[in-house]
Every structure is written in C-alpha cells, then in structure tokens.
Amino acid sequence: MSDKSNNHGIEKLLREIDNTLKWQSSNLHKKVADLLYPRLESLLWLEKRLAIKGQLPPLSGWPAAPDFLLRLHTWVCKHKPQVVVETGSGVTTLVIADALRQNGSGKLISLEHLQEYADKTNETLKDEALTAWVELRVGVLVPWYGEHLNPADAEKSSRWYSLDLEGIEQINLLIVDGPPGATCLYARYPALPAFFEWLAPTAEIWMDDANRQEEKDISEAWAERYGFELELIPLEKGMSRLWRAGGVTPAAPSATVDTSERSLGLDFSIGR
Ligand SMILES: C[S@@+](CC[C@H](N)C(=O)[O-])C[C@H]1O[C@@H](n2cnc3c(N)ncnc32)[C@H](O)[C@@H]1O
Questions:
Q1: Is the dihedral of CA 43, 48, 49, 53 positive or negative?
Q2: What angle separates helix 91-103 from helix 66-79, to the nearest 10 degrees?
Q3: Residue range 176-198, pLDDT digits in tens
Q4: Of 3, 23, 96, 237, which is the most exposed, with the fewest CB atoms less than 10 Å away?
C-alpha cells in the first residue's frame, strides 16, 4: 500500500473519531440540559414559595425531586387540605408543613420507620417552628397480612409500618414515598389498603418514583381494584396521581388564624 493511500485511511479514521466525539458530547450536553434546567427552574420557584428561614436537606438521591416538591407545595397552598398523610418522612414533611403553616390550618401525619431520620426531620421542624403542623409517627416495619401484590412465596415477605393509625380520618391527600423498595416486592402497595377506609371522598393519592415499573404496577392495581382514576405525570422521578371520578378536590376553606400555641412563630406571607 502506498504512503498516499495510507495517509488517506488515517485521515478518514480521524474524521470518524472526531464526528463520533462531537455527536457524543452534544448528546451528553442535551441529556444534562434536559435534566438540569427543569430541576433548576423548579428549585427557583420552590424557593420563592417556601417561607422557611433555613435550607432544605440536599435534594439529590433519597428525597423527592424539586418538581414533585413544587407541585406538592402548590397543591397544598391551593386546596388547603385539613388532613395530609405521608409514608416516608424527610423533605416532603418540611415542604408540606411549610404550606400548611402558610394556609393557617391543617395537619400532616407522617409515617417513618427509622428513628434516626425521624430525629433529623424533627430537628429541622423544630428549628423552623413547624412542629405544631406535623405528627411524625415512628414505627418499625412489621409483617403485613393484608392485601398485597408481593407473592406469598416471595423471597422477602410483606412488611409495612407498625403504627397505630388511630385518629387518622378524612384524609384529603395521601403521599406515598415509603417504605423503601428493598423491603419486599411492591413495598408501597399496602398504603391504599391500609388507608382506604379513612380517605375523604375527594381524596387524592400521589405516588413518588412512578418512573419505576413497580410503582407503575402498584398505581395501576390500585386504580383497578379500588376504582380510582389514574394519571401518570412525567416528572423527574415520575409521579402517579389517583382520584375518584366525580370526586371534587376539596374547596379551599378560608384560612383560620390560630391563636393557640400552634401559631407561635408563624409567618403567613405567601409571596416571600
Ligand atoms: C424515598 S425517601 C423519601 C422521604 C421523603 N418523602 C422525601 O421525599 O424527602 C424515604 C426514606 O428516606 C429516609 N430519610 C429521611 N430523611 C433522610 C435523610 N436526612 N437522609 C437520608 N435518608 C433519609 C427515611 O427513612 C424515609 O423513610
């Protein structure tokens, strides 16, 4: 082979490498931009809405993503639910409590299985004078014998929060973000069987992480078995929303300004 055709081959190879690198880098740039810009946008709006004085824990990894948190805060401020229940405490607990305080009414019951994280969340609630809006109930995960999608002969048997659910009724919003997926197959399924009886007719159920197949399957099974409408919302981690057809989202009651100790440290300014 002549030197000329050898050089030609090398030049062609270099051009191909160059094109591949350009294509990969623009692809990577697009992927980063697609994830980062909506995240930043949600964070900016969330920061505008929150009235807390300190900061939220870092929002990467375990907590709900900023787009879910923003939607949650906005919904609670708009619909003024009186009873919110969540499974899996953390950033969502702070965000809901902040919205309830801005509303001037309502309570959040948060179920948590790990004392360590309940303590962390309680500490932040205390620092922000938000404790009066939240009952954080801690209970380890224990065997669950109710209805489930986890097969009876599964490697990991079904478990759910060992909690006294007393006093929980007329739930307006149920947020399902626990227990962890590693608990057993379809770990979050018991949330609806456990709370179904206590839902207000107009209740909404929101499931975080609905990009995952298990969470999608749970949401579809809930919709079918319990007669709910289902919407899958394409957020960063995915969200499913369930509600009863004909159920009207609660009309926002007029804010009641509390004169009890609940109101201590309150800041009602919404447009901070
Ligand atoms: C899927 S995470 C979501 C918790 C919450 N709904 C949120 O979005 O922030 C579920 C678990 O994370 C754990 N968790 C809570 N606070 C935490 C923290 N500061 N660091 C690490 N894990 C935490 C808790 O055990 C909680 O049940």
A1: positive
A2: 20
A3: 999 999 999 999 999 999 999 99
A4: 3
Rounded-to-integer distance, Cα 29 and Cα 129, Å: 42
Which residues line the pocket of ligand 1, CB cutoff 6 A?
57, 62-64, 88-92, 112, 114, 117, 120-121, 177-178
Report the alpha-carbon distance of residue 242 to residue 192 in Å, rounded. 11
pLDDT of residue 163: 75
Q: What is the pTM of this model?
A: 0.84
Q: Which domains does the chain have, with CATH numbers?
A: 50-263 (3.40.50.150)
Yes or no: say if 177 and 68 are a contact pair by the CB < 8 Å rule.
no
Q: Indicate left, alpha or beta for 129 from its phi (over 0: left) and psi (-120 to 50: alpha).
A: left
| Ligand 1 centroid from CA 256, angstroms | 31
